[in-house]
Amino acid sequence: MNTLWKRTALLLSAALCLTLFSGGCSDSDDSQNPDLRQIKIGMTVYRQDDTFISTLSGYFLETAKARESRDKVKISVNVMDGKGNQGIQNDQVDKFLSQGYDVICVNEVDRTAASVIIDKAKSANIPIVFFNREPVEEDMQRWDRAYYVGAIASESGVLQGRIVSNLFNQNPELVDRNGDGKIQYVMLEGEPGHQDAAIRTEYSIKTVTGAGISVEKLANDTANWQRAQASAKMGQWLKDEEIGPRIEVVFSNNDDMALGAIDAYRAAGIEDLPVIVGIDATPPAREAIKEGTLTGTVLNDAKGQAEAIFELAYALSTGRDVKEAVPRLEGQYVWLPHRTITIGNVMQEFDD
């Protein structure tokens, strides 16, 4: 287990303490001073067992702890798991509202359900910061104290496509195994209805064909962002004589599903892997790049997003200017850029 993964696990364990102990994040004597201002931040995520989301929430807790120590304030962070159920998540938001939290951060189970959450938050005059799952624009326009932090999905698809097209142009024999001049591929997609899944799927392939490379889709299916589901689906394809032996590239909408594809190859006893690409640059994915099983991924900046979410939440809680706190803020949106991660730069980009 690498250093970042250990730190993230420890921070997520600490979240339980933060939900039960309102004294905040700091271990210093200053945090026990009753005269200090206490800031209460509620966070609800669609699934805590999602690797990217757990990494992001770990960074959020780390940032809150550092700011508490620096500014000598109490910051109580309550992270709750929506467990993939919008009803459960709505109840969690209601709890934060009834208990008078200063700000609520929401990674929606269902991005189309934002209007209900925004209207409730507006009635209570408690600002809300959505992240990772973008509400539809019409819902965001319902209130000017609703914000969104994320990354542009099309950019991640483009960069994923470039990993494959660049490799094809530089070393065609590594990609085009049968030498027919085109790429036979399968696509592992995120959950239906999620904007990132549809956009990443579209733009990854569009980028490859835009580079003048012919493609042939052998199969595609949803695996709901989950490693186990992707492994099961990939295992079925590998058993299909019309699909398995012909796969040259596995496109995956996120890293967990890409790792699931690798798991399926290992379970099938196949050591000679095709090109496999993911998105997110999670710690396990970076390890897979180093060991040579994952060809590449696209950094969906969990640390940068966590810091932006916190800075927005902190500014909103303390009455500070949000634009000054988060210079990237454009109206109600904060967009973080993506970066390509391959064996050529993974060591330089991360000190895992």
TrEMBL record:
InterPro entries: Bact_Solute-Bind_Prot2, MglB-like_PBP1, Peripla_BP_I, SBP_2_dom. It is found in: Cell envelope. CDD domains: PBP1_GGBP (cd01539). Residues 41-320 form the Periplasmic binding protein domain. It holds the Pfam family Peripla_BP_4. Keywords: Calcium, Metal-binding, Periplasm, Signal, Sugar transport, Transport. One of its GO terms (molecular function) is carbohydrate binding. The keyword Signal applies. Residues 1-27 form the signal peptide. The keyword Transport applies. It comes from the Bacteria. One of its GO terms (cellular component) is outer membrane-bounded periplasmic space. The ABC transporter complex is composed of one ATP-binding protein (MglA), two transmembrane proteins (MglC) and a solute-binding protein (MglB). This is D-galactose/methyl-galactoside binding periplasmic protein MglB. It comes from Anaerotruncus massiliensis.
